[in-house]
Amino acid sequence: MAPFDQRRFNKSVRQALEAARTAPGRSVDTRDVLLALMRVDIRGEWDRIALEFGGEDAVAMAPVADPQESSPVTWNGLALSGTCARALDLAVRLADAYETNDVSAGLMAVALVADPAAAAAVALTHGDMNRHAALLDLLQDAVVGHSLGGLDKALYSWRSGPARGPGAPNGPDVADAGDAVGVLAVALDAVEDTKLRDAYERLKLDGETIREIEPLLAGLRTVSAREIVKRAKLRYDVDLPEAPQLIATAMTEPGERLARALWLLGIPARAIAFEAETSDARTQRVGEEITDTVNAFTHLNAILSAAVSLFIVRHVVVEHDWWPGIPVALMLIWVTWSGLIIGDLMLSAVLWFWLGPWYAALAAAMALAAHLLSWSERRNAFNRTGMRLTRKEWRRHIRLRTARQAGPVTAVVLWRRRRRLTPAMEGGDA
To answer: Is there a contact between 58 and 123 (Cβ–Cβ < 8 Å)?
Structure first.
């Protein structure tokens, strides 16, 4: 991050930054700057902030700290925490976006609490993510003096940007992502597993899509990015969760905000989570081998399918049933190899009337073998990922493996999205 041009900040903000000097050895954090700003800025209606969230004494005594406690960035020789440096950077961006020339006390206040996990924000909301949106609204009204149109979109663009500062980790940096929605957007951008990216592409899911619908999620309760990271660390026993791990974690208890986003996009959270868990298991080489049970049922199903196909062809040839025998036979052979259990059962009923009960019994045995194969595959997937899928969910996962088979899944997602998203964007509700 380049040094700040101090001329971009108005007099009250510069005075607050100078007054925020702390004890030697500790970087100035967002809470320090907020406190100084509350004391220096005489135009803002800070008494309204104190009434709704807390005054200077409450902010000063709050046991809080910035997520990024150190950085190489300074202000006039004053060491800034990484989160504080990011807040100053955001303040400049907001000044540019709203064409105010310089950074006012109001814009600085908004920037200091833009990250819900920042010390300044937590000191005022007491860690209650559900009050963060209300805090931003009140700061605009009481300190900025007017509403900042499009602020939510501007903040999400900033939160989802690349990691700043030297020494940032190679994994997805979601410390500034804000909440579960921001975490999902950043993690989707950071996915490196080609198979996982392909699966999400077939679900029409990416970080940009998540950001585009963010304005439709205002006012809903959410889960903080810090909480998502904490859960992922505990769940996978890692210091720096990877993108699939963050995605899977965000899907568990996603909160109203993320749940609404997924509903609007027409994508089940479990579908997103399972693909991420599968990717993580593949990366960690967990349970890669095919179990003996799966192998046995695969071979049995193939043998029975081949036998049914041969008996159908034999009947057509022996009986000289060329018309409509050949078209019917081709259709039944396709059903035989489709892998659909319901198709096998329908095939059994047709063969009962066409060829006799013995052939119908063979088709029924094929349906049973297909059922046992699906059950064993899902059990193997459960052992690898910890997720127990229904037959419908497993079938969707199978289809997402290839672009050719994923067509019906993609079509359903797009159909849901049109029905739900279009009315919501027009101001109604799906």
So the answer is: yes
Q: What are the extents of the domains in the chain? A: 6-150, 180-286, 292-399
Q: What is the pLDDT of residues 295-319, one digit of tens each?
A: 676 777 788 888 888 888 887 888 7
Peptide bond into 3 cis (omega under 30): no
What's the rounded Cα separation, in Å, for the pair 38 and 48?
12
| Cα–Cα distance, 349 to 243 (Å, whole number) | 48
Please state at what angle helix 82-97 crosses helix 30-40, rounded to 10 degrees: 50
CA atoms within 13 A on the CB side of 52: 16
Q: In the block, which residue shows the tokens 């509700």?
A: 429
pLDDT digits (tens, 9 = 90+) for 388-402: 888 888 888 888 988
Separation of alpha carbons 177 and 230, rounded Å: 14
What's the pTM value of the predicted model, to 2 decimals? 0.50
CB neighbour list of residue 104: distance below 8 Å, 6 or more residues apart: 10, 12, 13, 95, 144
How far is the C-alpha of 135 from the C-alpha of 336, rounded, in Å? Answer: 61
Q: Which CATH superfamily is domain 6-150 in?
A: Clp, N-terminal domain (1.10.1780.10)
* CA distances from residue 62 to 22, 37, 95, 206 in whole angstroms, order as listed: 16, 17, 29, 38
